[in-house]
């Protein structure tokens, strides 16, 4: 199982909704959404996942954004889904931090069970809190899944239902600084051998949370692909005229032209997804979708491709 983590930005939620509505996301791909604000795209994506009976975990105690400690607001936005978890593929999630005990107590008061909850345990600092909330030796049910980094101390303490969860995106301060290509991940190959039941990451966005965007000097298109050994690599297609912030559409076309050249010259048909096809169509039609849509399409490509791999439909 693959657990991609998103902060609930509009373009991320639209990516999830479109994947679900077009039956492009596998049930082996379980998105985790940390809502940063209540927007229509949040409820619409949750409803689409429920309608398609696809799993999605919604964090009840976000650590960033406008909804920190706003349990009731999140509950109201998703109550039609979370009031009766047994009838919904959307389930709750908790981040282990200073608010986790209050959040879990609040959730239990709403009838949400520990055994139906996903937990993000990013630091051994919160292991004691985790053990006080989830401990089968004292009849406190263990979480449905626990997402944690590759940490020996955590592994000794948390042994069941663990998911390897790490940031695989090597984020640069400037788009112009990305290399042409680098390794992205081998976790999908090694996770079971390492004793995990799944793996997760922050897709092609990265863990860092930035409140607002800014006009870039360079445009970068981030596309993951499977190498011959099935390791996941990432190509960074970066524009060339990067001395100022003007002509973003022209910069996009420089970057997408490089994507087109890679796809056609290296015969990468194995990697073709709906998101990638739309990007290639923008090159063909000389159209510019806007930067948020560019990110949406790159996310869609990543999740569809990973689902194909997990379902054994990738081919060689």
Determine the strand fraction and express it as a percent band. 15-25%
The class by helix and strand makeup works out as: alpha/beta
What's the rounded overall pLDDT mean? 90
> SSE order, as H and E?
EHEHEHEHEHEHEEHEEEHHH
Low-confidence stretches: none
Organism: Anaerotignum lactatifermentans
InterPro entries: Sce7725-like
Protein name: Sce7725 family protein
Written description of the protein model:
The chain is an alpha/beta fold and about 325 residues long. The chain folds into two domains: about 1-165; about 175-180 and about 210-315, no CATH class. About 35% of the residues lie in helices and about 15% in strands. It has helices at about 10-20, 40-50, 70-80, 100-110, 125-135, 150-155, 185-190, 250-265, 275-285, 290-310; strands at about 1-5, 30-35, 55-60, 90-95, 115-120, 145-150, 160-165, 180-185, 200, 220-225, 230-240. Strands 1-2-3-4-5-6-7-9 form an eight-stranded parallel beta barrel. Strands 8-11-10 form a three-stranded antiparallel sheet. Helix 1 (about 10-20) runs parallel beside helix 2 (about 40-50), helix 8 (about 250-265) crosses helix 9 and helix 9 packs antiparallel against helix 10 (about 290-310). The chain starts with a strand and ends in a 6-residue tail after the last helix. The relative contact order is 0.13. The model has no long low-confidence stretch (mean pLDDT about 90). InterPro entries: Sce7725-like (IPR047727). This is Sce7725 family protein.
